[in-house]
Amino acid sequence: MHERSLPASPNWYCSRSSDVNSSGLLGVGAKNIIFLIDVSASSCRVTGELVGHKDLVSGFSFCQHAGQSHVCVSSSGDGAVRFWDSDSRSLIREHAAHQNPVAAVHWSPVDKNLVVSGDEKGIVVCHWYNTGDTASFFPEPRTIFCLTCSPHTWSSVAVGYKDGMIALIDVSKKGEVTHRLRGHEDEIHSLAWSPVAGEDALYSRPEDMEGTSGVSAGDEKGCYLASGSKDQTMRIWSSAKGKSVMTLKLPYLKKRGSAVDPGVKERLWLHVHWPKGRPTQLVSSCFGGEMVMWDLTRTGKQRWTLFGTSSEGQNHSRIIFNMSSVRLQDDRELLISTSMDREMKCWDLASLDCCWTLPTLGGFVYALTFSPVGSGCLALGVGDSMIRVWNTLTTQNQYDTRCFWQGIKSKVTALAWHPTKEGSLSFGTDDGKVGIFEVFSNRPPQISSSYHRKTVYTLAWGPAVPPMSFGAAGGKPSLSLYSCAGEGVILQHDPSKLSGEASDIDKLIRDTNSIKHKLSPHTDLSWKPDGKVVAIGNEDGCVEVYEAPGLKQLCSIQQHHKIINTLRWHHDHDSPPELRCLLASGSSNATVYVHDLRSVIENPPESPVVLTEPYRRLCGHTSKITGMAWSPHHEARLVTVSYDGTAQVWDVLQEAAVSNYRGHVGYLLCVDWSPVDPDVIWTGGKDFTLQEWRVSKQEFTKPPKGKKMVDLREKMKANPKQQKKKNKKAAGAGGAAPPETNGEPVAGGEKAATGQELSGEDEEDEVSSTNSPVPPSAAFETQRKPSTAAKSKDKPDLNLLKKKKPRSMLPLSTSMDHRPKEDLLQDCVTLASVRHSAPPAGCVPGQGDHIHLGLFCDRQALYRMFEAEEEGHVEAGHHDSAAYLRLWSGDLEGALRLATEKGELSDHLLSIAPMAGFEVWSRTAEAFVKQLCLQEQYLKAASHLLSVNKLYEAVDLLRSHKLYREAIALVKARLPADEPVLKELYTCWAATLEKDGHFSAAAKCYLAAGASFDAAKVIARKNDVASLRTAAGLARISGEVALAQSLALRCAKDLAAAQDWTGAQEVLSSQESLLVHRLHLCVAELMTATLADSETSAQPRPSSHHGSVQDQVRDAWEEQFGVSQESAGHRSAGALLQELKSAESPAPTANIPLRQALLYSSLHLTRAVLTWLSGDDGQLIKELWQAVAWLRDAGHSGVSAEFCRLLFPDNDVSVCSRKRSKVLHHTEEEPEAAARSLQAFVDYHRLYEHWWSDSTQTQSGLPPSAAGSSGPGGEAEGKAPNGDASERSVSPESRSRGELDFDASALLSERHAACQAAQRSVSEIQERLAAMVLKHSRAQGGQLDSGEKEADAPTQTSTTTTAESGDAGQRPEDQETLFSLSTKMSEHQKRLLELPDTIKMYPRPDVVECCLVLLHLSKSSPSASEPLQQKAKDLLRKYGSGASSRKASRQFLT
Fold first, then answer.
1. Cα(925)–Cα(954) distance, rounded to whole angstroms?
2. Would the CA dihedral through 312, 314, 320, 323 be positive or negative?
3. Contacts from 431-438 at CB under 8 Å and sequence distance 24+?
4. Of 740, 739, 741, 793, whose CA–CA distance to 762 is shortest?
5. What is the CA 892 to chain-centroid distance, rounded?
6. Which of 662, 682, 688, 652 lies closest to 670, judged by CA?
7. Please, what is the Cα angle at 967 between 994 and 1012, to 5 degrees?
8. Whether 691 contacts 663, CB under 8 Å
9. Closest CA relative to residue 278, chosen from 219, 356, 184, 352
10. Closest listed residue to residue 364, CA positions, set 702, 131, 31
């Protein structure tokens, strides 16, 4: 058929759209065609195509069985699965079992009759080649991306899905899923079975195996499966176990001098291929077009090897989509790969080197031209935004091409080599750009600064014409570049200065030829090779010839009647003079005319000559002519290409057809004759291919007859909707080629051309090799939307532009005019009788069979016709037309009534309603409002209510449909400001907004309604600091004092909890009445800062140089707030103290956060300082006790100890302030008890300081006597607040290990010891009672089984209580009775009641614990006096009844 060709680019994003059979024939799906390529020789050759699919080919597979290897199967987005014979290139059978686009297909390597396919909805279909039967399964409701049949078990099929799951299904069991393989996180791009059955270990190290569970891999029958996913990993799966055994991550390879950033999400298609006979080697694609051979028995970096490392430039430059391998008869093992870089490469699997590269084309071939200087150098302009330059004469590489893409960014629609300068190639694009490439350099192109508004059709080099001054002067080139584009303008560019402005030659033509009228838009131009004259083709079919350099018009050729698409002058190469002036022209009327202009050129006439007869007429094409070329080797031999899909060689002088080439699918766009071989021609077209063919080897001599085109056009007219739908589908999916039968393409159905090479079908995506599963953004470099700028040179197709005809108002009478001719003639006789004499019997114009005559008779007849037409409209449901008929007859009220009844009122009818009176208009407007409400056009309905002065009804309508904003605007614009309905609207809207969570908008509504309180409350609902601050300010401005104070306090508490003291003070400072709360926050901030400083300092500060916390508080108050003893009025201490009593002060509980505990403690300290200012010493000491107790009881004992030191630097609670000489005197019992309790805790902390001081001075940390226990008190010591670092630090004036420097007798209170012992006993008995009750209830419920243990809590409790109850010899707790325990409980509670309330209200440190610490200190050094030690021993004997206490005291009491 053809010698060499560049096929269309293989489809992108398909898991298996190419395959190769055992004889070395490769099938590749490109667009909707399958190209067959012979790869068995040292170079490849396209041998044919399989044509028939209507959508993109999504899958292709050969039958790999002997005797049947020529049979193949393909799938497509049109839902069809087709079986082909690759030898005869014919269709065997088509299956239409799928209702959705088919995503993948595979021919089983085991069963020669089984083919499995899967579609995008998850349907899997088994096709039986021998019987033609099909069986459908639906294993998973997911989108299928790929599938592959097992090479070892006929019924096993692996299916990969879009969501990353892989299903192994058994087609012999109705598609039952045997395993679901989960592990990938994204699309499964490819699946490949191991070529060897069984699951022998793939690892050199057993620890690399994933989840083998110690079972030998070969014990189970199965096979390995490899998968590649978009998540950048490959996995090897065990089909027997259904789990992953190996994960391979793609290596990040350096490319073009820059490292790949693993953090950047790159576009990736991960294809895996398991070559036959290589069970441990796997081939995969990589990120940037590299191919990797994995050795599955290795680990680390030695696991993979790159292809093509022996020399530069072997690898693909973009991602790879498909790989298929074959072992040829000469034992060579080849691998074929297809890529996004639009190249197919063949690799030798032995050396991993590239054998050959086949370039492919991703768009229409718009232009092709051989260089007149570089012999055999062919340039191609392609719709994939690239120029290819092919050295067609090279012997080593038959497909030696270079691609140029820089600066183009659009379809390349025109090319022209410089006539004398080698390598200089001009190009024009679809977006109106003109530029020049120097193809032998790597520089980007020069781009002309003058752009065309539309597609560039033609480029031509020719002599300069004014106003550009070229020539020898300045050494400038003598040739200009001319460009003709879709807007009908020809521009002259200066090639040496493309940045300058190009000139429009129309101005020169008008000036030279004194033309006043507007010139016809130009569509093509061609300079005669000698540069003397130029021919210009126009949109009106006229060809005009001008003489250089002034462009004086010589003649006008008026033979074509349609747009001129191409013009070509005969060459000057050794041709006789009579042939050098031949001009061939082709237009959209399918006829080629050749004109002999020798006489006009050699003897220029004074005025332009009009030529109406051609020199030769070449007829045969059946559609528009798109390109032509004269043979440089012959005299008067011409080749033309056409929309009829063929190329025709003509003997011009004989007007004879020589040869016809029909190898393309679809229309042709360009042609050129080989400059070195007289028998070779090159053509390119819509099918994305460039083909080389020989004139002498063609079967046909003439183009195909046009009958097929006529039939197709008739079919299109009969069913235009189907054609429109097909065109629309083609525009998105790459388009379908015209059907071909017996090698003769049907060229019908084409749209009008957008240029001599551009057609309306160019709306198809030029690079639509992509498949549907991939988002459009994934192919953004090349998949651009079709250009809409290019207009048709031809008249547009009226069928496509025809608008829907409006419905007739008089359809019955109109239909009467479409009767037979005889009836229409009789109507004329009848009408004449009616007009001039008596009407025939039974003839009533406007009624019955004579309804149409009502239009030609009197008014009564017309009214009768209207009545009949109105009845017809009502029956047909066209009530609007019936109303208009009544309106035309003058019955306006009737028309409105009819439209109202039928719900067909319109703005126009309402606008004319006032003509019938106010009452009718008002009634009509109200009816129209109801109709609009049913149509949910509430705003329009309200406007019409306003037009009839129904304002309140309009407002109610808007409010009822929650259009509050519009209703409020209407009321404010039309009603007084004090209108009650306005407040209702604001309130209703606010409630709706508040319900939806739009608190700010709701607050504005409340404010507008005068409800400031509600506005502040709704803003505060958000309950964050900003909202509370805003709400407090709003309430203050609005005069809501109480609410403002409440909100400000809430906001300040939140800020204080976050320790934003400045913000909290700012919030409270706006309201004078909150002064006492500001004082509280000041105290809290001071406490927090002081405690933080003491924690960070290495040693406690000496007490003699600093005042107490109370003094610091008073100093701050006087300086910042002016509050002192002398303050009066609302700043007096009494008034402030009264306000602070209302502040919340809950009882302390354990585990309160420190920040919260500090706030509550600071509240008591604030009260204490205020009572100091008011002179109440008794209340002062009680508040100080509360401040310390809060921190202690909340679980912050260390902080409490530090706070005691800050409160009483002299360790004397009676000294409140040395700075202000304040000493406390107590006369009442309760303050005295509080003072003693507070002093006891101060002494308690000092006792532990002395102990730690003593411990740090001892090398071992503890005396030998106490080394066996954790401390002097065992468990009791654990209750001491020794966890704080500040307590363990030692004063700089380190005390000697002598006596205590304070009176410790306050710690050994016998009454408090008795109270504490009774409280401990009551607690122990309560725990034992609880355990007993729980055990009894479980026994009653049958919860205790023989082997069941009790719950943890009771077990621990009983153990503790047994240990605490006495020695080991005592009776265990389970021997106690409920009665005995209750009796003990009563005794202890009675003992507690007898004690004074002050002892229980103001407790002291644990007396037993203090005794143990004192005795321990006295044992190691004389810390306590003998009477004090004796008292401690007596208290231990009497109250130290606990097991741990007895154990700790044993060393002191024996």
1. 12
2. negative
3. 431/455, 431/787, 431/789, 432/456, 432/485, 432/789, 433/408, 434/459, 434/481, 434/483, 434/491, 434/493, 434/498, 434/502, 435/407, 435/408, 435/498, 436/481, 436/495, 436/498, 437/387, 437/404
4. 793
5. 58
6. 682
7. 40
8. yes
9. 352
10. 31
1326: which strand partners? none
The answer to whether the CB of 59 falls within 8 A of the CB of 101 is no
Q: How many whole angstroms from its chain centre is CA 911? A: 50
Whether the CA torsion 534, 535, 536, 542 is positive or negative: it is positive
User: Which residues, 6 or more positions from 726, have their beta carbon under 8 angstroms from its beta carbon?
Assistant: 54, 736
Could you identify the residue written with the tokens 């994003």? 13
In tens, the pLDDT along 1084-1126 reads: 888 888 888 766 654 444 444 457 887 888 888 888 888 887 7
| Tens-place pLDDT, residues 420-474 | 999 999 999 999 999 999 999 989 999 999 999 999 999 999 999 988 754 444 5
CB distance 490 to 525 below 8 Å? yes
Start-end of H helices in 583-636:
598-602
Q: Which amino acid is at 1282?
A: N
* Sheet strand arrangement including 592-596: 564-569, 582-587, 592-596, 616-618
Q: What distance in Å separates the CA atoms of residue 409 and residue 435, rounded to the nearest whole number?
A: 12
Residues 6+ positions from 908 with CB-CB distance below 8 Å: none
Q: CA quadruple 818, 820, 824, 826: dihedral positive or negative?
A: negative
- Decide: 184 and 235 in contact? Cβ < 8 Å: yes
- Short-list 618, 481, 623, 605, CA closest to 562: 623
d(CA 575, CA 636) in angstroms, rounded, equals: 9
Q: Which residues are 286's β-sheet partners?
A: none
Residues 6+ apart with CB under 8 A from 845: 831, 834, 839, 853, 854, 856, 857, 861, 864, 865
What is the C-alpha separation between 515 and 1055, in angstroms, rounded?
87
User: Tens of pLDDT along 1181-1194?
Assistant: 888 888 888 788 88
Backbone angles phi and psi of 997, in degrees to 5? 90, 10
Q: Do residues 417 and 425 touch, judged by C-beta distance below 8 A?
A: yes
Q: Which amino acid is at 1048?
A: A
Contact 1193, 1150 (CB under 8 A): yes
The candidate with the shortest Cα–Cα distance to 1044, out of 1054, 1024, 1029, is 1029
Q: Can you read off the two tokens belonging to residue 638?
A: 């011409």
3-state secondary structure 230-244: CCCEEEEEECCCCEE
Exposed / middle / buried, residue 1297 (Cβ in 10 Å: 0-12, 13-18, 19+): middle
In angstroms, rounded to a whole number, what is the distance separating the alpha carbons of residues 635 and 632?
A: 8
Contacts of 259 (CB under 8 A, 6+ apart): 252
Give CA–CA dist 944/922, Å, rounded: 10
Type of residue found at 1271: G
CA atoms within 13 A on the CB side of 186: 15
pLDDT tens digits along 1125-1173:
777 777 787 778 777 777 666 777 777 888 888 888 888 888 888 888 8
Say what the pLDDT of residue 188 is: 95
Q: Which two tokens stand for residue 627?
A: 């390109």
CB-based contact 116:106 (threshold 8 Å): yes
Instruction: Report the relative pairing of strands 552-557 and 609-611 from DSSP bridges.
Output: parallel
Question: What span, in angstroms and rounded, lies between the C-alpha atoms of 629 and 626?
Answer: 11
Token pair for 164? 């990353």
Instruction: Indicate yes or no: pTM above 0.70.
Output: no
β-strand pairing of 690-694 with 680-685: antiparallel
Q: Is the peptide bond before 467 cis (omega within 30 degrees of 0)?
A: yes
1380, containing H or E segment: helix 1378-1394
